Amino acid sequence: MPLPAGDPAIFEMSLDQLARHWVGANSAAAMTAAAMTGADRRAQLFGVPGSLLMEHAGIAAAAAIHALAVERGRWAKGPVLVLAGPGNNGGDGFVIARRLAQAGVPVVAVLVSAEPRPGTPDAARNWDRLAGVPRVTRMHAESTRELAIVGQGIEKASVVVDALLGTGVRGSLREPIRSAVRTINGARAVGVPVAAVDTPTAVDLTSGEPSDPVVRADLTVTFHRPKVGLRTRRGAALAGRVLVAPIGIPAVADRG
After folding, report:
1. SS3 letters across the chain
2. Which domain holds residue 70?
3. 4 found inside a domain
4. Is the Cβ–Cβ distance between 11 and 66 less than 8 Å?
């Protein structure tokens, strides 16, 4: 089976079809956040570029977001809003933005960070790639005020994508991520579906315990193998439907 970046057919699939298509990943043993971090790092040591892992992850998530929007009757009914943090989870979000724009819908990609650029090389490259892409609007939100502007008219969005934080956090969230979570939950409160990348922001992938505030998602696309935290009672309630997508981590890198 081809990996997501080489598998255009996934953009013709429903959520149920994607689950069957990725049955190997979805039926694998669950892993902790630390095990996933280790597998990702070892994959890169064995020669799989981090940029390629991000490309597979973002394209897989984009296909699932497309399927969610179609299922809810919202595809092409409004822009997709991607709220992206400064790390690699945000980098996945920038890949999502690029791929959904290529599929023909307008996308607003918001870098939610006190800094003007993403903080990892792969995320920064994918942020830069969005410059000049048709149908993509890039924004930088570093304050509560700017996020309030982003939230104006959010009910017109077809889907809101949570690509803020990928591993969960301990303690309360700090600004501007905190306000971005409230923006996402405000969208869901008015009927806009929310798709989370890897984990809903502030849900720990190992324990399933949330920080405050926490994103409540309709769909979570996680990668490589299921995560222990998303199978706990609290984690599952916050994640919504969970799909697991393969991203090309080789078996030799997968020890956890």
Report:
1. CCCHHHCHHHHHCCHHHHHHHCHHHHCCCCECHHHHHHHHHHHHHCCCCHHHHHHHHHHHHHHHHHHHHHHCCCCCCCCEEEEECCCHHHHHHHHHHHHHHHCCCCEEEEEECCCCCCCCHHHHHHHHHCCCCCCEEEEEECCHHHHHHHHCCHHHCCEEEEECCCCCCCCCCCCCHHHHHHHHHHHHHCCCCEEEECCCCCECCCCCCECCCCCCCCEEEEECCCEHHHHCHHHHHHHCEEEEECCCCCHHHCCC
2. 10-253
3. no
4. yes
Q: How many domains does the structure of the chain reveal?
A: 1
Q: How far is CA 20 from the centre of its chain?
A: 20
* Degrees, nearest 5: CA angle 163-68-103: 80
- Model confidence over 155-208: pLDDT tens digits? 999 999 999 998 756 678 999 999 999 999 999 999 999 999 999 999 999 999
pTM check: above 0.85: yes
Rg (CA), the chain: 16
CATH of the domain at 70: 3.40.50.10260
Residue 170 within a domain: yes
Give the largest CA-CA distance in the chain: 48
Rounded to 5 degrees, φ, ψ at 215 are -75, 140
For 41, the token pair is 């790092």
Examine residue 1 and state whether it is found in any structural domain, yes or no.
no
Tokens 């940029």 belong to which residue?
51
CA geometry: angle 75, 225, 83, nearest 5 deg: 40
**Does 118 reside within a domain?**
yes
